[in-house]
């Protein structure tokens, strides 16, 4: 049985924590941030936990990570 290839784009976008949760960067950080309030800018720095059906898909694309 051959090894499964890891989807490299998925590995770059998501990371798995020590307890197995999937974390991703919050969207909307690239540009047009000058008009955001300081509170919004601060909240965008935090990672968010991936939930729902997306977790199963990500885990299948990254079998060894």
Question: Can you offer a commentary on this structure?
Answer:
The chain has 65 residues and is α+β, with helices and mostly antiparallel strands. The model has no long low-confidence stretch (mean pLDDT 92). The chain contains three helices and three strands. Strand 1 (14-16) and strand 2 form a beta hairpin. It has helices spanning 8-13, 38-44, 53-61; strands at residues 14-16, 22-25, 47-49. It has a single domain (8-61), classed as Factor Xa Inhibitor, CATH 4.10.410. The longest helix has 9 residues, at 53-61. InterPro entries: Ribosomal_bL35, Ribosomal_bL35-like, Ribosomal_bL35_sf.
Please sum up the structure shown.
The chain is α+β, with helices and mostly antiparallel strands.
Q: What are the low-pLDDT stretches, counting only 5+ consecutive residues below 50?
A: none
| Biggest pleated-sheet summary | 3 strands, antiparallel
Quaternary state, please?
single chain
Rg over CA atoms, rounded to whole Å, is 15 Å
């Amino acid at each position: 049985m051959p090894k499964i290839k890891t989807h490299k784009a998925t590995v770059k976008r998501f990371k798995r924590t020590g307890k197995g949760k999937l974390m991703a960067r919050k969207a909307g950080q690239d540009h047009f941030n000058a008009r955001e309030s300081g509170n919004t800018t601060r909240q965008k720095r935090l990672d968010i936990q991936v939930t729902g059906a997306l977790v199963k898909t990500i885990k299948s694309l990254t079998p060894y990570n």
